[in-house]
Amino acid sequence: MANQIALPLYEKIPRKNTLQRVFDILIFFLLLSLLIYRFLFLKNHGLTWFLAFLCESWFTYTWALVISTKWNPVDYKTHPDRLLQRVPELPSVDMFVTTADPVLEPPLITVNTVLSLLAIDYPVHKLACYVSDDGCSPITYYSLVEASKFAKLWVPFCKKFNIHVRAPFRYFSSNPQTFGGSSSDFHQEWKRMKDEYERLSRKIEDAVQKSVPSDFTGDFAEFSNIERKNHPAIIKVIWENKTSLPDGLPHLIYISREKRPKHLHHYKAGAMNVLARVSGLMTNAPYMLNVDCDMFVNNPKTALHAMCPLLGSKSENKIAFSQFPQVFYDGLKDDPYGNQMVVLFKYMGHGIAGLQGPFYSGTGCFHSRKVIYGLSPDDVDSVNEKTANNILSNFGSSKELIKSGANALKGKTDSPLNLSNSIQASYQVSGSGYEYGTSWGTKVGWKYGSTAEDAHTGLMIHKRGWRSAFLSPNPPAFLGCAPSGGPSAATQQKRWVTGLLEILFSKSCPIFATLFGELQFRQCLAYLWILMWGLRSIPELCYAALPAYCLITNSHFLPKVQEPTVYVPTAIFVIYNVYTLLEYLRAGQSIRAWWNNQRMSRINTVNAWLFGFLSVILKLLGISETVFEVTQKDQSSDDASDAEAGRFTFNESPIFLPGTTILVVHLTALVVSLLKLQPPARDGHGSGLGEVFCSVYLVLCFWPFLKGLFGKGRHGIPSSTICKSTALALLFVYFCRRVAIG
């Protein structure tokens, strides 16, 4: 027993990556060689050479950031069995679920996430589930009330038969013997649970179709005559666990914060801060889990895994949060939209874990309440009166919240005996004007000023010197749904890039966090790698236009085939593609998945990322504000056998205009080259095989857009977009001709 107590709760195991380092360094030196060659011969070439030099300088800089981030990958191995022996009483956990739109985020999805949380393997009396409904939807509230009735059957069933998958929609879509047992008793219970869940689903779907769940009387009276963006706070304790029975239910609380037209509500970050304040008054757990409404618990021991690094004797004053990777269920075969991020998390995610720790990704994350309240690592062991007062002075006017905050900072987390006793104070801290004159959103809680509140909050935590842990248990802790359409995927990418650039161009820039805070240098480089995603759109767009420009004007930006230096860009292209292909194959992905991600990288960069960049520029110029756009959630992906599954979809959004224009420009350039319509080459150095190859490669990358030119319905590019793109392409050709004549 003594030996067991002495064993660590988690291990940080370095990965071997010698081959990866060799490839990384080789590509880096080839890029440097190309830059040196460009620089030495700048005077002998024109504008295209100079533009290529600038773009390739950016690519080299980006690759240096990638090398630094991936250089020291680690795996975290947790030991929940040791945790149960080491810690006599596990700490409480407040679980937060956020939803914002009952149409884009159907209530049945939210309900399944909540049910999976209520059923996790953790002491029931130590759990509380809070659902933030920023859509203030009576249907969402009704769905949660009905779900709580089903949960009284579902949770004991899961605990009794040790069910592994505890989101009902996912569990009942599988063979019962796969997730439970084969006894007659189990089969009877399974049939009963399935019937009850189908009844629950029908009730919720009927309510959705009617738009209102019932008459606005009784429990629903507060939802009558409300507007989504103009309503008082609504807080309801749907279920309170007063008995603390092992097979009981955790607390379940519904929150819709107050919203008024003249008050900023700060999107998801504002909702998270209201959840932090209300939960602080009601249960005041020392740890908080937050998940998006579509990310259900897939591993019932998730909370135990998360507690291992948070409670490890040497790390309790170092690790601020445990982050699980985003993993998606029923993803379309071969990742046609390039948004399942399997390889990104496998290599970049584990590489960042070897630095100061992973970024906070907004879902699937366990936070320490002390850290969210603003405590630094140096103060966590003994919070003196001065430190506590400095933090609590920014909490606002609620005496009850200040008292609960003081208890949280000092490690005293006794929650009220009756949740209803905290309702009145909870309404106060949920008010739209409560945060005025406080430090919520700046020094305390989730950070404001960016639509990527997750990366912003995580960066500020790392700035104070905290570390974070990246946990990848088997099976995955959480599963969610990836956007399954062109417009949805583009909207998500645009929102991410917009928020990341807002951080980069603010006082929270990681460079300042390193110079004036405790952010480690290589962690700063990792943050710069992700925050600069939007900036990549400019050099990539410029580089994508160069082959077409050269073909139309009969100039060149690549060395000629007969020149020895042509082997440098050729080697970069070949080695990089072979290297990335090997990464995908080692991650269990197919060659088709690799290609889909390569082309979607080009498509996202010149479409969604470009619009994200422009949005931030308009904000910086004071012309317009950025907007948080909710991504469409869909519980079931398209059937892989369906002929339409994975086909790219379009809509009237201008976000598809740049990609369509690039395609039309390159098709035009290839026709000009094929029909020999180019002007005479200057100095005898016209366009060559390299420019033709690059142009063909880009057409292949934008193949979904080429099919969209001739497609119909949602699979076709709207005629208005095609007309605008054609006009822009003709302008580009006219510009090229004028330059050639000049």
From TrEMBL:
GO biological process: cell wall organization; cellulose biosynthetic process
Database matches in InterPro entries: Cellulose_synth (IPR005150), Nucleotide-diphossugar_trans (IPR029044)
Keywords of this entry: Cell wall biogenesis/degradation, Glycosyltransferase, Membrane, Transferase, Transmembrane, Transmembrane helix
Keyword Ubl conjugation: no
Pfam families: Cellulose_synt
Catalytic residues (positions): 134, 454
GO MF annotation terms: cellulose synthase (UDP-forming) activity
Subcellular location: Endomembrane system
Membrane topology, from the record: Multi-pass membrane protein
Keyword GTP-binding: no
Originating species: Castanea mollissima
SUPFAM superfamilies registered for this protein in UniProt: Nucleotide-diphospho-sugar transferases (SSF53448)
Sites where the protein binds Mn(2+): 268, 292
Transmembrane segments annotated in the record for this chain: 21-41, 47-67, 566-585, 606-624, 655-675, 687-705, 717-736
Protein name: Cellulose synthase-like protein H1
Single GO cellular component term: endomembrane system
Source species, domain of life: Eukaryota
Residues where UDP-alpha-D-glucose binds: 105, 134
